[in-house]
Amino acid sequence: MRTLQEEVPAPKDFGVPIIGVQEGSLMDLDLRLEGVHEGILVSGTAVVEVTGECARCLDPLAYDLEVNVQELFSYEEPPQSGPPVGEDEEEQRWIEHDQIDLEPVLRDAVVTALPFQPVCREDCQGLCSECGIHLVDQPGHHHEVLDPRWAALQGLTGKDSQITN
Fold first, then answer.
1. Burial of 42 per CB tally in 10 Å (0-12, 13-18, 19+)
2. Left if phi > 0, otherwise alpha if psi is -120 to 50, otherwise beta: which for 160?
3. Rounded CA gap, 47 and 113, in Å?
């Protein structure tokens, strides 16, 4: 067994468009590499700094995210020809030239841990759809929007309208 405690720069595309890990920001890895019968078992944690914006109000977000990592890298490579590769074998990680590639494993762990709709706080009210102001700044803010198809009938209910015989 060996331990790996390093800070490494994050590669490109560690996230989704609205939230993710900035390329080059440091990822703090605390991993254990164990030799097992089938290959090398990698387990531990990775801490990354996540940046993005709130899906409701578009305010910037930044926080540290800790994800668990566990993956088995197998010694033997799959045959290049033969029967079709099963679904389990497609997801299998392999030791290639006595090296393992942690990037896809870390990417899978981080990206799947990111929120689908990131928010700055659970009670974020977002932006007004009409004028774009933060609704938290002006509680009770609303716009009177009349459907233009009913505008011709608006005068019928007013005090100025008179019914004549």
1. buried
2. alpha
3. 12
